[in-house]
Specification:
The protein is α+β, with helices and mostly antiparallel strands. Helices cover about 45% and strands about 20% of the residues. The structure holds uridine-5'-diphosphate and magnesium ion (MG).
């Protein structure tokens, strides 16, 4: 197993609206994740569809995929590629579980949000949970390709 991995983090529009981009990035810096790419952008619908793939529709339903594509394109986002030892799992641990209501204190979703699936579903909106992070090293490579051109990633030691 290759222990040196890359992972893709998106700070979703709610993170920018809340003005907590710096606080979230600080947490990743604190654990020593190495930033190898970062950009501020407004996503095209096509790019959002490449990110939230058919896999999301299979797991969570087509409705959730549509809501998430709408959410991701609703305002500016920050895309970051990190590198580190088994960083995929580390970053997933740091963001916490998908539903802010259930996310443990100390995690990003648990510390900065609290909304439940039940509430979001009753309003028919996607769940605002501030961050996306890749679920596996394979997913990370695919997702980094969606958001970054190779020359936008910085390699230094
Ligand atoms: N999501 C949602 N409603 C649901 C399930 C998921 O709005 O019932 C959103 C939520 O913002 C989540 C994203 O869809 O972050 C992607 O879902 P996934 O299952 O991949 O969760 P994640 O990997 O982000 O924890
Ligand atoms: Mg996911």
């Amino acid at each position: 197993m290759d222990t040196l991995q890359r992972t893709l983090v998106l700070l979703k529009p709610d993170a920018l609206e809340r003005g907590i981009v710096g606080e979230i990035i600080t947490r990743f810096e604190r654990v020593g994740a190495k930033m190898i790419g970062m950009k501020l952008l407004v996503s095209e619908k096509d790019t959002a569809l490449q990110h939230y793939t058919e896999d999301l529709a299979r797991r969570r339903g087509e409705r959730v995929r549509e809501l998430m594509v709408a959410m991701l394109t609703s305002g500016p986002i920050v895309a970051i590629a990190f590198e580190g030892i088994e960083i995929v799992e580390v970053v997933r641990k740091m963001i916490g579980s998908t539903e802010p209501k259930s996310a443990a204190p100390g995690t990003i979703r648990g510390d900065y949000a609290h909304v439940s699936f039940k509430h979001a579903d009753s309003l028919n909106v996607g769940i605002f949970n501030l961050v996306h992070a890749s679920g596996s090293p394979e997913e990370a490579e695919t997702e980094i390709d969606v958001w970054f051109k190779p020359e936008e990633l910085v390699a230094f030691t």
